[in-house]
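User: Here's a structure from my thesis project, written as structure tokens. My advisor, Dr. K., wants to see whether a designed sequence matches the one we expressed. Can you design one independently, without my sequence as a hint?
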């Protein structure tokens, strides 16, 4: 077929096929079509019973995010190697797989997002909401000026025990959750002020204005960054929380877990 001469380049000589949320019959058809090719399934659940499977914690709306996340997971699980070329088959419009993209897996492109979502205590949707909020805050700043912010997500009881209030807690008697549109407006308003936000595993905003007093010391943070990042890193060594930190000074968003930076992104790139 003449079209194969043109579009065939997209899937020619790939190291593996990455199938995103396939139906059982689609998966069977592909396996049957070419027994030589490695097939890796990416989905929220392994309904098709694939041997090579990467769990997606959420259905990413953006295909690019979905694919990037999947590739990080596949690298992490050593299902693919650095430099492997994948034919990524995904659904972009509605219902079924309709798009194939040719993507090279590059270790250097890893953002750490897989670790952040897949192996954290808080619910993935909660982490996603906080990450989106912080990225938006980083993009827009507060009335055009750069702002810093510190969000501690998960293991909230322990985090509260290792911190103290800097001011009254506007969330004291409320039952608001991250992701509510109104909350995003409120959080942005409060983030102008000092201290950290504490969020529960399920996304409840437990407190604003917390001054973290972790007992862990000596976490490695990039030069030029100070106490916000030091405290944000150290609290994740002391507890099972993760932190998402926006730097006022360099504008980057970083995530910490187990006392280490596991993700660093420039909000302007989103
Ligand atoms: N232990 C802490 N808990 C919560 N917030 C803190 C803590 N220490 C510092 N902060 C907040 O971080 C702000 C900035 O402090 P600092 O400049 O030392 O941090 P930084 O890591 O350099 O971050 P940035 O890049 O945003 O400047 C402080 O004004 C304060 O609001
Ligand atoms: Mn600083």
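Assistant: Designed independently from the structure alone:
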């Amino acid at each position: 077929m003449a079209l194969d001469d043109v579009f065939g380049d997209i899937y020619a000589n790939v190291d593996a096929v990455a199938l995103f949320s396939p139906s059982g019959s689609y998966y069977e058809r592909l396996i049957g079509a070419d027994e030589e090719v490695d097939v890796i399934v990416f989905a929220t659940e392994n309904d098709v019973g694939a041997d090579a499977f990467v769990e997606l914690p959420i259905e990413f709306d953006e295909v690019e995010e979905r694919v990037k996340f999947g590739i990080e997971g596949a690298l992490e699980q050593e299902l693919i190697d650095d430099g492997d070329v994948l034919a990524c088959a995904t659904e972009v419009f509605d219902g079924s797989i309709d798009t194939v993209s040719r993507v090279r897996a590059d270790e250097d492109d890893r953002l750490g997002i897989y670790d952040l979502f897949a192996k954290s205590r808080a619910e993935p949707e909660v982490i996603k909401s906080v990450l989106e909020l912080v990225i938006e805050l980083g993009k827009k700043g507060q009335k055009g000026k750069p702002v810093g912010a510190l969000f501690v997500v998960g293991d909230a009881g322990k985090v509260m025990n290792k911190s103290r209030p800097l001011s009254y807690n506007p969330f004291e008697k409320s039952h608001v959750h991250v992701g509510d549109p109104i909350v995003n407006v409120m959080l942005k308003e409060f983030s102008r002020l000092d201290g950290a936000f504490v969020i529960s595993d399920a996304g409840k905003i437990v407190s604003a204005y917390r001054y973290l007093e972790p007992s862990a010391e000596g976490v490695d943070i990039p030069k030029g960054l100070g106490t916000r990042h030091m405290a944000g890193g150290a609290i994740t060594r002391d507890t099972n929380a993760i932190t998402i930190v926006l730097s006022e000074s360099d504008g980057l968003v970083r995530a910490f877990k187990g006392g280490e930076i596991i993700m660093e992104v420039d909000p302007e790139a989103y």
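When you compare it with your expressed construct, this may help: The helical segments are 2-11, 24-33, 63-76, 113-118, 124-140, 156-161, 181-190, 227-238.
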